[in-house]
Amino acid sequence: MTRRALFCFHDNEPTGASLWLYNLLRGDGDPRWTPHAVFPGASPMADELQARGVECHQVALEAGDLVGGGSPISRLGNRVRSLGAYRRLFREVKADLVYTNTSVQVASMLAARLESCPLLIHVHEGYGHFHAGGKRSATFPLKKWAVRRLAQGCLFAATEGMRLFGDEPKGRKWRFSPNGVDPSLATPRADKNTLRGVIGLPVGKMIVLFLGSLCRRKGTHDLLECWPRILADFPDAHLVLAGKVPQGEDHPALLSLEKSPPPGVQFLGFRRDAADLLHASDFMALPSYGEAMPLSISEAMMAGIPVVARDVGDIVYQIGDGRGYLFEGDGTAPLEAALRAAMSNPGEAGIRGNAAARFAREKLLLATQHRQVWDFCTEISGA
Questions:
Q1: What's the predicted TM-score (pTM) here?
Q2: 3-state SS class at 36
Q3: Helix-then-strand count for the chain, H and E
Q4: Residue 6 forms beta bridges with which residues?
Q5: Third-level CATH fold of 183-363
Q6: Per residue in 297-329, pLDDT tens?
């Protein structure tokens, strides 16, 4: 008889950690488990998961994952209602295990504890104290408490995350499991110019891609600030920004992107064709100030696309040792220097991209991580 695992999404869009979990549930699964997906409201991911035999549920939204809008009283009320909704669902489904895919899902964590369900937290973040506007968040101590006190097991996508949350508590099980990606990303579905025609990108340009949330934590504002200087020396360069500006971001350059992108910059908004975007590009840039182990970098590596990124979190694990362009320091100067180094020597960039692809195919395979998750579910539940 299979056991029931409820996989709680923290977001309704297929990006970041939610995309990782979506891919897990679309995969081959495990005969020991019957998975259920739990979304905080309507989600475009639900239809395909249901078509693949995964039962889907909706619960009340957790007030923007602890930092949502509204008054403190309304946020508290929303969390209390969320807690009740999760408890009822876990009880009705008779859950044998609850999985949350970030450390911000406190309502579902508390519900699992109150319903005596084994709890597995997958900690994808590694920065711990930033939110969309780049400001310090006051909620990290609460997240740290919840992770350390409520979960029987934690999977960390980055060793930086393990450092932030402290030593393994007595009686708990903690594991490091680097984010894996699908090896099919290594093979483009068409040549670069054909893909650019499909996506609407210019042919004959040197394209630098930014893929992710357009916010100050991700350093998008630094990229926009230094781009005019890059463009002056590399007139054939073209910056492509794919992603959404998250709620709470207030940087003027980011808020004006949709209506008036700067010269040499193309804003695509939220996209679901990451593989095509990567294979249509020459470089990917991710000048983040806070990361764990970014899925977008692993995807670019599998595709053989050279990455320029700030040395934060576990990014050194991904593109260190000549597998990309790693830079240190805040602000635009180190980012600009790294971009210039990459763009001025395409031959060397190709060598680094190939090294990244070899590493990804050996160390960053999605199937390997999927197996680790299912095995850990079994270990945590005592099945």
A1: 0.82
A2: strand
A3: 15, 13
A4: 36, 98
A5: Rossmann fold (3.40.50)
A6: 999 999 999 999 999 989 999 999 999 999 999
CATH number assigned to the domain covering 3-180+365-381 = 3.40.50.2000
| % of residues, the chain, pLDDT over 70 | 92
At 326-355, the pLDDT tens digits run: 999 999 999 999 999 999 999 999 999 999
Indicate the DSSP class of residue 136: B
Tokens describing residue 331: 């602000």
Query: Within 13 Å of residue 134, how many CA atoms lie on the same side as its CB?
Result: 16
pLDDT at 19: 86
Report angle CA 212, 214, 217 to the nearest 5 degrees. Answer: 95
- What is the spatial distance between Cα 147 and Cα 145, in angstroms, rounded to a whole number? 6
Structure tokens at 113: 């504890």
**296-311 burial string, b = 16+ CB within 10 Å, else e?**
bbbbbbbbbbbbbbbe
**Domain 183-363 in the same topology as domain 3-180+365-381:** yes
Contacts of 371 (CB under 8 A, 6+ apart): none
For the chain, the structural domain boundaries read 3-180+365-381, 183-363
